[in-house]
Amino acid sequence: MINTIKKLLVAGLILPFAAPAMAGDNDDYGETRFNSLPLSGMISKNIWVGSWWAYKADGIAYRHHDDSVAGWNDYKNDWNRWDSKETSDLSPAEKFDKLVGRLDKVEYDQLIERGKKLQELDGEVKGLIDERRDLVRVLRKAIKDNADDGDFDWQTTDDGKRYKEINELVDAKHEEVNAFEVNIDTATEYEVLKHGSIQFGVGSWFGHCNAWAAAAIVEPEPRQSTTVDGIEFTAGDVKAFLTEIYMESDSIFHGTRNNYHEDEESRDAVDFKDISPAMFHIFFADQIGNRDKSFVIDRFTGDEVWNQPVKAYRADCEPLYTGTQAMEREVSYTTYPVKWASGSYQRIPNVDKRPNQQVYPLMCSTTIHWITDGLPSETLTALNISDDIDDETFKSSYRIGELYDHQVEIRTISYELWLDKPMDDPDARIIGDGSWEHGSASNYTSLHPDFIWQPTGDVNDSRRDYENEFIDGKIVREQILPGTLEKQDDPMVTPEMWTTGDVSVEIVDNDVDSPAIVELEVDADVTVAVMTVDVDITHTYIGDLQVRVVAPSGRSKVIKRFGAGRSSDDIKKTFDVKALNGEAAKGTWRVEVRDRAAQDVGTVNSITLHIK
Questions:
Q1: pTM over 0.85
Q2: What is the number of other CB atoms lying within 10 angstroms of the CB of residue 56?
Q3: 44 vs 294: CA distance, rounded Å
Q4: Which residue, 160, 181, 202, sits at the end of a domain?
Q5: Least buried of 12, 119, 416, 431, by fewest C-beta within 10 Å?
Q6: Range of the domain at 442
Q7: Contact indicator for 541, 510 with CB cutoff of 8 Å
Q8: Positions of the chain with pLDDT under 70
């Protein structure tokens, strides 16, 4: 589900680069103070569902609108798939070509002849490609094992020679197919030949999931059709365009790709363990819980890649030590320095194991939620996705599936963290790697993420090696996307503000049935498009508190859950309350603050609503 076939097979001997962790210091991953990392969080942005636009169905050249076309599993054998000339039947790529006046340049007959020739050779070439993929794993291991041998050259080994021989054989087969020449000067031709079925070695999982995941995190969701120059673009079409223009984007990357099969050697490999429990816990809690920023995980900890954008998490952590008595562990510190090895720069892991270290270990169980992409192209994201559900539902894949129309998938992961102080100490920090506790997990689909990466925003226009160069992002964003958004957020409109001013409402200690209530009367007769809530609360242990916003209609949203923030003092924060968009603003709004534990007390100082 990622465009890595060329990188894997041609440059696959080079390990992907990632920011290294400093030995004994997890600061590269974010906040390391355990009690400054919320135990739960959910992204406020609508991260949208979609299709991963499988290569076997020609990527975004898939005619998902045309009922006469075979389903994507049989798509490559359906040579009648381009028969219809009706605009309504066209694929997203064809519609874009039609919009810019080049659809008549698509050489459909040549594509068909080229495809038939490729199918004739495909069986033979597939065997070679499978053998080459296995050799990549063998050679990667040999490079690691001989990293300190300056005379080692993988190309002179028997496996290296066979790898090069296979490349020559596959290249020869490519030349036979290239005899049926296609001038790639349209989005449709590019997609079919570069991101589609008419190429050797297309796996069933190859697709655009990396690009969809980045676009779903960064861009607004198209939710309705729009017509431009007489051409109707559906929400699914525009999701395809946004997906394609994110095939290459700048990002922050952590981890390495595990290219091994499911076996014990792979389970013990360093590049299987490169996402440490410390990195996992810190990144989830700091990015989602503290910063409200999503990121992408490869949820398949094996040789395939399944990119999914993360929506939410909840963690439960309990001490393994008693009182304030530290425990002994062999604490590992893993770094990934870049070294010159075997003719190229490699990320060579360095594992520093320090026995007999005194630490305060915690056993954590964290449930993570991600948005799915294995859905029909026109599927719209459920807008009721919320963290205001009980723990049992949050941890149940069955209940989540029912609640959110099977748009959210989940996994619960167990691991041990190491602290340098007892967990109740506000300065206790997460040190070392920690250890995974996967128990009897038998396959890679139920383990920790393989790697994690975060799109940093705009695509990198200077590098277009894998992106369909005929999809113009400027045209998509300026001419097509705006008409598919249900409600525009006009940045020139200043939100109206309603505030309690300085109040001092006591929070009832240890009584969830008697919340502190603050009311605000809103006189604007508008529908909420954007709302934020400024909360100013004084309290000596904010993990005791839950904060809920209640609209005049009675609909509500928990903006701060019990447990979040743990022993931290005070809440002075602005919350984005997208779950109440669409509510009538006029009427009495309520903010309720509940306290579930004894001893620590506090007051509500002020509440301010911003609505536009």
A1: no
A2: 19
A3: 9
A4: 181
A5: 119
A6: 24-45+274-459
A7: no
A8: 1-24, 259-273, 336-349, 439-446, 457-465, 487-494
